[in-house]
Structures are given as structure tokens and as C-alpha cells.
Design a protein that fits this description.
mainly beta; seven-stranded mixed β-sheet; four-stranded antiparallel β-sheet; elongated
Length: 119
């Protein structure tokens, strides 16, 4: 069984910064692509950023230049550094990872962490 555990959400004022982290744990697995999504109240879940095992990244236009995704393969952990936060960034943030594990490769999801940006 693979689990993703997120941490780092909270309340911040507009213009401030927050860092999120997400660690994958389990037995006999390897982590491939990882990503962050977010879901604002009443809206669909949207992609924020992705990162391959080799470190190639991709960002949603709304966060380019403000957010940075990174990972530590030795720790099976993905990070999201969020700067210049705006009230529109308020959402539940979810990490996801494509994992090769007994039973076959699949995407796993974290439980989500709340980010609130006040104006």
C-alpha cells in the first residue's frame, strides 16, 4: 500500500509565501511523475504543476513565475513553494504521484491540505 502525506498548508496574507510538501511511503515501489492539483470551493480540481523523476517541470499559466515545484527522489517527496500568493490561490491542494508498485503502476493521491490567502 502506498500513501501520500501532505503538509504545510495554512493561512497567509496576500503577497506572502507558503511551502507544501508531500511524502510517499510504502513497500517496494518507485515514484515516477509527481504533481500538485488544487480545488477551490465549488470548482473543479485543476492542475497546478508537474515534475518528472528527472526534474522536468510544467506549470499552469496562473502560477508561472510564482510557484516552484521540486522533488527529492531519495525521500520520495515533492514540494511546492508558493510565492506572491493571491486570494485566488485559496484552495485545497492535493499531491499525486504515479507509482510503480506490486499490483501495477497507478496514480495515488494525498488527502489534501488547505491553503487560504486573505486579502
Amino acid at each position: 500500500q502506498v500513501q501520500l502525506v501532505e503538509s504545510g498548508g495554512g493561512l497567509v496574507q496576500a503577497g506572502g509565501s507558503l511551502g507544501l510538501s508531500c511524502a510517499a511511503s510504502g513497500r517496494a515501489f518507485s515514484v515516477n511523475d509527481m504533481a500538485w492539483y488544487r480545488q477551490a470551493p465549488g470548482k473543479q480540481r485543476d492542475l497546478v504543476a508537474t515534475i518528472t523523476r528527472g526534474g522536468s517541470t510544467n506549470y499552469a499559466n496562473s502560477v508561472k513565475g510564482r510557484f516552484t515545484i521540486s522533488r527529492d527522489n531519495a525521500k520520495n517527496t515533492v514540494y511546492l513553494q508558493m510565492n506572491s500568493l493571491e486570494p485566488e490561490d485559496t484552495a485545497d491542494y492535493y499531491c499525486t504521484a504515479h507509482v510503480s508498485a506490486p499490483g501495477g503502476p497507478r496514480w495515488y493521491w494525498g488527502q489534501g491540505t488547505q491553503v487560504t490567502v486573505s486579502s
